[in-house]
Each structure stands twice: as structure tokens, then as C-alpha cells.
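PROTEIN SPECIFICATION:
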Amino acid sequence: MFSGIVEDMVRLAAVERERENLHFTFECSFAHELKIDQSVAHNGVCLTVVKCQDNCYTVTAMGETLRRSNLGLLQVGDEVNVERSMQMNGRLDGHIVQGHVDGMAECVSVEDAEGSFVYTFKYENDPEMARRGYFTVDKGSVTVNGVSLTVCNPTDDTFQVCIIPYTYEHTNFHSVRVGTCVNIEFDILGKYLSRLKHFE
């Protein structure tokens, strides 16, 4: 479980394909603290550490993960938002994030908000998925590339988020442009509430 508060940005050092799997090796400031089997969120995707060496670690993504997320689009040198699993004795500064990405959204607009930025993202409008809680609500939570954010001005297939300068500089939001695909995870509370309605 994660909070959506990005801990660091890591740089992709190498990619190795093994059948449908991709092994990603990242350069990371806290690689020496990691252990095999530890969970780390990468652009919001929970992956298991399978190897640690010097200032790098390796994780593996299977075909299903690559189809649902933007990890398959990564190239060597790209920056990725990372967060280690949440400590239960700390404050929950973001919101409850599972690290189970629901899909991708495309950036369709970036507006200068006099020092901050307003990003608009568009995702596939699937009525059946919406009935199951896969949607956004005004002032609710959404995770974009692993960043816990507050939703603004949602529609059936778009939402906006406001990015302050600190978040812009310390996450890979500074690389998000119109046309960029990002990972999104909808709020788990909305999914549970939608599921409960089936039992009324």
C-alpha cells in the first residue's frame, strides 16, 4: 500500500526483455536500502524488487502490467516517480493508493496558472467500468503517475489536476506534455462504494 507521495525520481538505466516480461533496472538514491521482495511503486505501478546491486535495483513487469500502464513506453534515461510502501506508523499525507494502476490517460492540455500548472487528462469512457467505480469526482482523489492529486472539473472522460511548482520540479510532471500518456489509479473508496450498491 502507498500514499501517492513521491519519494524520489529514478532514472531508467537498462531494459531487458524476457518473453513477455520486461526487466527494468533503475539508478536510485536509496537503492542500498532496498531488499529483494520489497514493493516499490513506479509511476504508480507496484513492482517487486528482484535484484539489488550498487546504486541500482531491478524490477520485473509482466505483459498485463505493460498493457495497462505506460511502463512499456519507457526508454533508457527516462525519469520515473517512485515510492516505497507506506509505513503504518506514519501520517497518511496523500490518500490510500494500492499501486494497481487502472489504465492510462492522455494529457490533452497544460495551462499556466500564474506560477502553477493545470493539466487536463482524457481517459476511455467505459460506462460499465464507471458503474464499478472507475471515475473521478470533483475534489476527490486520483493518482497520476504515482502522485496523489485532487480532482478538479471532472467530466465523463476527463479531469483536471493542479500542480504546484514543488510537485512540478520533484516529480516527472515536468516531462508531461500534450500527448503524454500517464498511469491513473482511481480512488479505491469509490470502487468499494460502487461495489456495495450491487448488494442493496
Q: What stands out?
A: DSSP finds four helices and twelve strands in the chain. The radius of gyration is 17 Å. The first strand starts at residue 8 and ends at 18. The helical segments are 63-68, 127-131, 165-170, 188-196.
